[in-house]
Amino acid sequence: MKIASIEIDDKVDQLLAILQNDIEHLQKTLARLNELRSLVIKRNDTALSKLLESIHADSDTYKAAELKRQMIRKELADALGCGLQQLTLSALEAVLPDEKKNRIALIKAKLKPLIKELKKEHISTTLLISECARFNSLLLKSIFALGKTGTLTYSSSGATKQQADLAFLNLQL
After folding, report:
1. Between 167 and which of 129, 142, 145, 172 could a Cys-Cys bridge form, CB atoms 3.0 to 4.6 Å apart?
2. For 18-22, 61-65, 153-157, which range has the lowest pLDDT when averaged over its residues?
3. CATH number, span 2-162
4. Whose CA is closest to 115, among 10, 14, 26, 25?
5. Does the pTM of the predicted model rise above 0.85?
6. Alpha-carbon span 59 to 68, nearest angstrom
7. In the chain, where the domains are located
8. pLDDT digit string (tens) for 84-133?
9. 3-state secondary structure of 169
10. Residue of 103, 86, 85 lying closest to 16 (CA atoms)
11. Sign of dihedral through CA atoms 122, 19, 59, 55?
12. How far apart, in whole angstroms, are the C-alpha atoms of residue 118 and residue 29?
């Protein structure tokens, strides 16, 4: 019984360390989303490319942390005799002594607003990017008259001819 308790304590400490790293990752992600939107608005392609490369480089580190968190959760669930789906921070908090319970409550208090803020920032970034894509599409359609039905005229021989002077850039040869 004592060995199982020590094992659970060690796993909880490992999980709390990973969750602390997750808090730092969420804070970094929020800062990056703000920077991303700023660079898109400023149209700073060089800095935007560097930021995207940095995000891509850090993705492997975060994937490894995610795998480790899931492994520790599974080991904790097995040690506590519950399923992985039932092992939440709240459930863990309910079965641990006060010292660990307080640490988990502190982590939860930090995670909840960060996750809420991340959802909001993600939606804002998604809206900005989709609005940029819509604007670019409209701009391309107006420049190249893509998908334009235009005005049809007929020549004296009966051939149809689309009015070409509506586009900013005429693609007809």
Report:
1. 145
2. 153-157
3. 1.20.58
4. 26
5. no
6. 14
7. 2-162
8. 788 888 888 888 888 888 999 999 999 999 999 999 999 999 999 999 89
9. coil
10. 103
11. positive
12. 8
